[in-house]
């Protein structure tokens, strides 16, 4: 696949930045696409732009503010509290987000004549997001190919990894320090190791500590 192009769905967070490094190693040309849907923290978009610049990857920021018109949620609206209730998707869930993002990424990929689409979705830490599931991605892949009469391949390098293994992958790609320091995962908009308090930081920290402990054992 060294002579082929890939579009990476890219938010500037740990997962999609790891995917960007992964794609850069595999494809001749990589294009990053970020969706602006009125994120709580504009810093997220800046962070994504900085990383794309560092990695010398063309970067598109597409306006998806309509998503917030359809379904206001805790990721976009500061007056909605971030909560996680047993048996329910967390309040950060945006219905149909991956469906929409991947569909728009495919339209962009077609413009670039890129056959590959890369996304950091993951079923392992499945927290009630139905459109992160492998079966959904495979189904959408078929649908996109039928809709555009093309042969897209959607890659999900993180699909079966836990958070510790995602750190391991970043390390294997020589990007551990970069991902640790330069990405933004925190719901409170704190780069790198984050605020340490929000659900996203706790998940990221747990994974990091587990990975570092595993590495120590070896
Ligand atoms: Zn945080």
Notable features of this structure?
218 residues; alpha/beta; Rossmann fold; five-stranded parallel beta sheet; 8 helices; globular; binds zinc ion; metal-binding; QueC; ATP binding; ligase activity, forming carbon-nitrogen bonds
CATH architecture: 3-Layer(aba) Sandwich
Main β-sheet description:
5 strands, parallel
Structural class, judged by helices and strands? alpha/beta
Total strand segments: 5
| Percent in strands | 5-15%
Describe the structure.
The chain is α/β, with parallel strands linked by helices and about 220 residues long. It has one domain: HUPs (Rossmann fold, 3-Layer(aba) Sandwich), CATH 3.40.50. The chain has eight helices and five strands, in the order βαβαβααβαβααα. It has helices at about 15-25, 45-55, 65-70, 95-110, 135-150, 165-170, 175-180, 200-215, and strands spanning about 5-10, 30-35, 60-65, 115-120, 155. β1, α1 and β2 form a beta-alpha-beta unit. The protein is globular and about 50 Å long. The relative contact order is 0.16. Bound molecules: zinc ion. Zinc ion binds near residues 188 and 197. Keywords: ATP-binding, Ligase, Metal-binding, Nucleotide-binding, Queuosine biosynthesis, Zinc. Its EC number is 6.3.4.20. Catalyzes the ATP-dependent conversion of 7-carboxy-7-deazaguanine (CDG) to 7-cyano-7-deazaguanine (preQ(0)). Pathway: Purine metabolism; 7-cyano-7-deazaguanine biosynthesis.
């Amino acid at each position: 696949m060294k002579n082929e192009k890939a579009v990476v769905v890219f938010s500037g967070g740990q997962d999609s930045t790891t995917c960007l490094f992964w794609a850069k190693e595999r494809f001749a040309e990589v294009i990053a696409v970020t969706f602006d849907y009125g994120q709580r923290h504009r810093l997220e978009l800046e962070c994504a732009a900085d990383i794309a610049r560092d990695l010398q990857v063309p970067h598109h920021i597409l306006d998806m503010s309509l998503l917030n018109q359809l379904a206001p949620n805790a990721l976009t609206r500061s007056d909605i509290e971030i909560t996680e209730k047993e048996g329910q998707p967390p309040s950060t869930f945006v219905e149909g987000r991956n469906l929409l993002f991947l569909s728009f990424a495919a339209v962009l990929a077609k413009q670039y004549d890129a056959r590959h689409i890369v996304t950091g979705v993951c079923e392992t830490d499945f927290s009630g997001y139905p459109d992160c599931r492998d079966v959904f991605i495979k189904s959408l892949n078929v649908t996109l190919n039928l809709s555009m009469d093309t042969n897209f391949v959607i890659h999900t390098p993180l699909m079966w990894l836990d958070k510790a293994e995602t750190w391991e992958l970043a390390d294997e790609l020589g990007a551990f320090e970069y991902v640790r320091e330069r990405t933004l995962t925190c719901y409170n908009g704190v780069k790198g190791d984050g605020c340490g308090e929000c659900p996203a930081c706790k998940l990221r920290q747990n994974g990091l500590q587990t990975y570092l402990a595993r590495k120590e054992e070896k």
